Prior knowledge:
This protein is of the alpha/beta class.
Amino acid sequence: xxxxxxxxxxxxxxxxxxxxxxxxxxxxxxxxxxxxxxxxxxxxxxxxxxxxxxxxxxxxxxxxxxxxxxxxxxxxxxxxxxxxxxxxxxxxxxxxxxxxxxxxxxxxxxxxxxxxxxxxxx
Length: 122
């Protein structure tokens, strides 16, 4: 990943959780990173799976209406969120999105990817 990003790092069970942020946001960067680390820690504890060596969340600004998210892009041990800079608050919706996207990182590795010729939702 390249560009004008601020990188903030948290820890979950001694492993890095990085939040790469582009743009200016209304919420506090440190609080967002702490929330991401807490959600990831809870998911890893729930699944008793601490094998991932790291995790990356990229947060990019979009022209979406505050409160709306564009569909996140996922990669192994990471995902990218596109959202309005005015919507970046630490509310239930943000927690839900973090938990939902992090779950995809776990379940695709454990259950396998959906073949390209099959429709999928998510």
